[in-house]
Amino acid sequence: MITHYGYCDGSGEYYVVVDSDRCSGCGECVKICPEKALELVTEFIDLEDKTVAAVTEDKRKKIKYTCAACKPETNQTPCVLSCKTKAITCIWNPK
After folding, report:
1. Is the Cβ–Cβ distance between 54 and 39 less than 8 Å?
2. Given CB 3.0 to 4.6 Å as the disulfide criterion, which of 20, 77, 88, 95 pairs with 70?
3. Cα 15 from Cα 67, distance rounded (Å)
4. pTM of the model
5. Which residue range(s) make up the domain with 60?
6. With contact defined as beta carbons under 8 Å apart, do 4 and 89 qualify?
7. Domain at 84, CATH number
8. H/E element holding 28?
9. What are the strands of the beta sheet with 2-9, ordered from one edge?
10. pLDDT digit string (tens) for 7-57?
11. Which long-range contacts (C-beta less than 8 Å, at least 24 apart) are formed by 92-95?
12. Alpha carbon distance 26, 83 (integer Å)
């Protein structure tokens, strides 16, 4: 399951995307995130509980500002680079 955390508005699209099929739940992205925007959550996926990375509830509507310092338009953010399974990507399309 692919989850888009963020939003799209008149200024563009701003998402951190987590592919739960690829996410191992290792937590490396959570440890390295300088803004503490990520957390590990347990979700019911494919008839079982699985621990995966997710953007914290309070950061989802502010993702444009929270993640801007890491330059997500390059897709070379600390969370993306730390993910060995390539489960995290960024969609950053300002208008």
Report:
1. yes
2. 77
3. 10
4. 0.90
5. 2-94
6. no
7. 3.30.70.20
8. helix 28-32
9. 2-9, 12-19, 88-94
10. 999 999 999 999 999 999 999 999 999 999 999 999 887 788 999 999 999
11. 92/12, 92/13, 92/14, 92/15, 93/12, 93/13, 93/14, 94/11, 94/12, 94/14, 95/10, 95/11, 95/12
12. 9
